Amino acid sequence: MSAREQLYKNLKKKSELMRVDRLRNFDPYVWQKDFINDVEKSKGLRCGNQQGKTYCGCAADAYDLTGLYPDWYEGYKFDRPITLVAGCINNDKTRDLLQKELFGDPIEWEAELGTGWIPKRCIGKIQKKRGVPDAFYNVRIKHFTNGKFDGWSKVVFLAYEMGKSTWMGHKADITHLDEEPPEDILEQASRSSIATGGRIRITWTPENGMTKVVKMVQDEWSMHTAEWKDVAGEDFEIEVEGEKFEFKTIYTLKGKKGHLTKEKVLSAQKNILPYQMKMRMRGIPVLGSGLVFAYAEDSFKIEPREFPEYFKFIDAIDFGGLSSTAHPTAFVRLAHDPQMDIIYVYDGFRLVGKEIPEIASHIIMKPNSDIIPVIWPHDGNKITGQGESTKDQYLSAGVNMFYNEDNPDKSHFTNPPSEGKLEGTGGIQIMPGITEMSTRIGDGRFKVVDMVGDFWEEYRQYHMKDGKIVDVDDDVMSATRYGVQSIRHAVTLIKKNKVINMNPTGSWLS
User: Fold this and answer.
1) pLDDT bucket at 419, cuts 50 / 70 / 90
2) Using an 8 Å Cβ cutoff, are 154 and 84 in contact?
3) Which residues, 6 or more positions from 283, have their beta carbon under 8 angstroms from its beta carbon?
4) In degrees rounded to 5, what are phi and psi of residue 176?
5) What is the C-alpha separation between 174 and 37, in angstroms, rounded?
6) Helices 30-37 and 53-66: crossing angle, nearest 10°?
7) Is 30 in contact with 50 (CB distance < 8 Å)?
8) Contact, 114 vs 104, CB < 8 A?
9) Rounded to whole angstroms, how far apart are CA atoms 53 and 46?
10) Which residues sit opposite 312 in a β-bridge?
11) Other beta carbons within 10 Å of 219
12) pLDDT tens, residue by residue, 140-197
C-alpha cells in the first residue's frame, strides 16, 4: 500500500471515528458549559427555538450515561452505571428529538447508530417501543469510571402523553424533561428522584405562558437562560417595532463562531409576531396562557425610600365605573432614575364605585400632584352622561391630566413612537407594555414598594388565556403599564429652580 493510500485510509478511519464518537468533540457555548457543570439536583435551561437546548441537555445525558466526562467538566460525576429517564410531549417528539440527539437519525437508525451523543462503541442492547415506528424504549449503554468499564447504564424513553401511571413505574438517577411537562408528570418525576436521591433537568422553550410549572422551576430551581444573542455567529443589528437590537459574535469553548446569522433572524422574523419576537430574543416566555409574570415578588419588592432630586415622576390612571360590580378606578405613582434607568412604583390605590370628584380628591391631595402629569387611557375621551369626557371631568376636578403638546388629539396613553415618528403614534397595544415590564423585572430595572398592596394583590393572579390578558382584577396592572410605557413624559419636581417636597408620598418619613 502506498503512502498516499495509507493516508487516505487513515483519514477515512478518522472521519468515521468522529462520526460515531461525537461526544469527545462537543464544543459548547459558555452558557451550555455552565448548565452542564451546574451541580444542583434540580436545574432548568430556558431558551428560544433553535438555540441548542435539547442538544445541550442530551450531551449532559451522554456524559452521565457513559461516565466519559470532558476535561472542562466540573459538575457532579456518577462513579457507577445509572438509569436515566428521558421524555418529551409525545412519543413521536421523544423519538425525533431526544432519541435522535442521543443515537442518531431514527429513520435510518441502523446505519446512523452512533451518530448521536452516545458513542457507537458504548451502545448495547436496544429494546424498541411497541406501536411507534423506529422508536426506542430502552437502551443499554457502557459506563466507565476513570476510564474503566464498570457496568451498563440504561436510558428509558417515555412521553408525557403516556400518562402519570407509566412514569410511576420508573426509578431514575436522572430525569431529563424536554419541553414543559404537565404538573402530574413533573410531580412523579420529582418523587422518583427523591426516592433515588437523583436529579432532574428541564430543557424547554416556554411557549405555554407562565404556568405553575414554569413559575415553580424559575422560582425554586437552579435556572439557566440563553438568548438569541448568545449564539450569534456575526455582528449585526435588526429592528423590531422600531427598536434596534444589536448582536455581537459569540464563540464556543474552542473558538468556533456561533450558528445564528442575520439572515436566519430575518427569516424567523417573517413568521413571528413582533411582540413574540422580542420575547424570544430576550429569553422571556411567550405569553399564551397562565400567569403573565413568573418572577418571585422578592426579586423586585423594596421598602419605601426617598428619591434624589434628579429623579423624574409620572402618575397614571385606569378609569373604572360607578357600580359596585364595575371595574375599580386604579391610580399609581412612578419614579424614574434616569441614570440607572430604573422605574419605581412607590404609591397607588384602587377605588370601587366612586364618583370622579371623590377619586380626584384622593389624587390632588398627593404631594406634587400639581406638577406630576397623570397618564390616562384613550377611553377618557368618551363623552359621558354629564356631557363631558371623563378626562375633562377629572381636569375640572383639579387633576393634572397629561396633555400632548406635539399632538393634542393623542394626549391619551400611547406606547413610545418608533424612532423619528410623531409623539402619540405608538399605538395602545397591550403586549409592548407587558414585554417592557417583564424585561425590566427580569434585569432589575423595575421595583415596587411593598406598601403598594393593591399592586401585589393583582400581580399574584394577573394571567392570560389563549394569548389575551384576562380582563378581571387587572386595573392597577393596567395603570402601571401606562406609566411604564410613558416614562418619557416623567418630570422632575423642580419649580423655578427650587426642589419641591422630595418625599413624594408624604408619608414615608417622619
Assistant:
1) confident
2) yes
3) 46, 47, 48, 225, 226, 227
4) -115, 110
5) 15
6) 40
7) no
8) yes
9) 8
10) 336
11) 14
12) 999 999 999 999 999 999 999 998 888 987 889 999 999 999 989 999 988 887 777 8
Dihedral over Cα of 302, 303, 304, 305: its sign: negative
DSSP string, 411-430: -S--PPPPTTSPTT-S---S
CA distance 409 to 377: 13
- CA separation for the pair 351, 156 (Å, rounded): 56
What is the predicted pLDDT for the residue at 244?
83
Query: How large is the C-alpha radius of gyration of the chain?
Result: 28
pLDDT at 509 over 50: no
Query: Which domains can be identified in the chain, with CATH numbers?
Result: 3-226 (3.40.50.300), 228-276 (no CATH), 297-499 (3.30.420.280)
CB atoms within 10 A of CB 425: 14
Give the pLDDT band of residue 16 (cuts 50, 70, 90): low
Which ranges of 230-335 would DSSP assign to H, the alpha helix?
Answer: 262-269, 274-282
Q: In sequence order, which residues have a C-beta less than 8 Å from that of residue 502 and are 6 or more positions away?
A: 306, 307, 308, 309, 493
Terminal Cα-to-Cα distance of the chain (whole angstroms): 95
Alpha-carbon 150 to chain mean position: 41
Q: Are 185 and 170 in contact (CB under 8 A)?
A: no
Give bridge partners of residue 203 from the DSSP assignment.
45, 178
Long-range CB contacts (< 8 A, 24+ apart) of 426-432? 426/485, 428/377, 428/378, 429/275, 430/469, 430/481, 431/275, 431/287, 432/241, 432/275, 432/485
Task: Decide if 40 contacts 32 (C-beta within 8 A).
Answer: no
Sheet holding 290-291, edge to edge: 290-291, 463-465, 468-469
Q: Please answer whether residues 245 and 228 qualify as being in contact, where contact means their C-beta atoms are separated by less than 8 angstroms.
A: no
pLDDT digits (tens, 9 = 90+) for 258-274: 999 999 998 888 777 66
Q: 379-406: per-residue pLDDT in tens?
A: 999 887 778 899 999 999 999 999 988 8
- Could you tell me if 144 and 68 are in contact, meaning their C-beta atoms sit under 8 angstroms apart? yes
* Residues 212 and 218: beta-carbon distance below 8 Å: no
Q: Is 207 exposed, middle or buried (0-12, 13-18, 19+ CB in 10 A)?
A: middle
